[in-house]
Design brief:
Layout: H1 3-21, E1 26-30, H2 36-42, E2 50-55, H3 59-64, H4 70-76, H5 81-94, E3 99-105, E4 121-128, E5 131-138, H6 143-163
Parallel strand pairs: 1-2, 1-3
Antiparallel strand pairs: 3-4, 4-5
Length: 167
């Protein structure tokens, strides 16, 4: 394992340890990252914090399973803030967890890429008891680099959010 991989594994471990210490669980609705975040949490020491998730790469899964209105996808594209918030909300009706995390975006050329939404654009939404924290971020590099940067950012956001909770 190289230093970069160790860095990402450590932040997942730190996040999972904090979640476990607070008796919190997470669930993911992953589009662009296609299960990468779930796999990272499933392989860590405190994997019990992972409730589960859905890989919703295809728009039909976003609409049929997670309840995102097709009109929202048509208006904003499958990789957008409204859709990302929608998949997190839909996930919250399917899986019991404290944090429901939706992720959409562009890891490679094609799809809804534009000057306002270049390759590397990632949308993430964290739902916590009805409150949402949504971000649009732009990462650079290979698809593998973009998804690992996304993993790191999600972990950092969760650590920050959980750390604000008083015991």
């Amino acid at each position: 394992m190289n230093l970069q991989q160790e860095k990402y594994q450590q932040i997942v471990e730190d996040c999972a340890t904090l979640l476990a210490g607070r008796h919190k669980r997470i669930a993911f609705a992953e589009s662009a990252t296609a299960g990468y975040l779930m796999a990272a949490f499933a392989c860590c020491e405190h994997s019990e914090v992972l409730s589960g998730g859905v890989v919703c790469y295809d728009a039909a899964i976003k609409t049929n399973l997670l309840g995102v209105d097709q009109k929202i996808i048509d208006q904003y594209t499958a990789e957008s803030i409204p859709v990302t918030e929608g998949i997190a909300r839909g996930l919250s009706t399917l899986i019991d967890a404290d944090y429901h995390i939706g992720i959409t975006g562009l890891l490679k050329e094609g799809g809804s890429e534009s000057t306002d939404k270049p390759v590397g654009t990632i949308y993430m939404s964290i739902l916590d008891r009805g409150r949402k924290l949504t971000h649009k971020l732009i990462f650079h590099g290979s698809p593998e680099n973009i998804r690992t940067e996304c993993l790191e950012k999600i972990c950092m956001l969760l650590i920050q959010k959980i750390s604000l909770i008083t015991l």
